[in-house]
Design a protein that fits this description.
There is one protein chain. The chain is mainly alpha-helical. The chain has one domain. Helices cover 88% and strands 0% of the residues. Helix 1 packs across helix 3. It is rod-shaped and about 135 Å long.
Amino acid sequence: MKERLKKSKAKIETASTRATRWIGSPWSVILHTIFFAIMLALPLWGVGIDKVLLVLTTIVSLEAIYLSIFIQMTVNRHTEELEEVSEDIEDIQENVEDIAEDIEEIEKDVDEIQKDVDEIQEDVDEIQEDVEEIEEEKIPHHKEPHPEILEKIQHVLESLAKDVEALKNKEK
């Protein structure tokens, strides 16, 4: 039953759209003008003016009633479509806001990663300096390196391990 109503409603809406379009066309103006000219010329062929005006008034009144109904149906349909478009625009605006928030979060994450990379680079530079110091001292392989150098290397390696652990935690 509901499906029949939907089909009937769709047919009526299609008819109202067609009627409204046709009434607003140049052909409608031409045909209405010819019709009114013929109706007003009928008294010249012996039809009583009272009958002509009665028929003409009745037709014009009925046409006006149906036109106003068709036009209101069209207005209602366009209003519904505009409401749907408005809802779509609101959804799009919300999505854009969400994307903007995500971009801000990504920018913060990138800044933090850059800081971590800078810290690691500093640690690598320190290790490089330590390696250069060791090479300059030319410590023989069979001797133990100085405890100070071992402490520096150990400190740098611990710092590096902390930075790597921090990066792993951020990725999770």
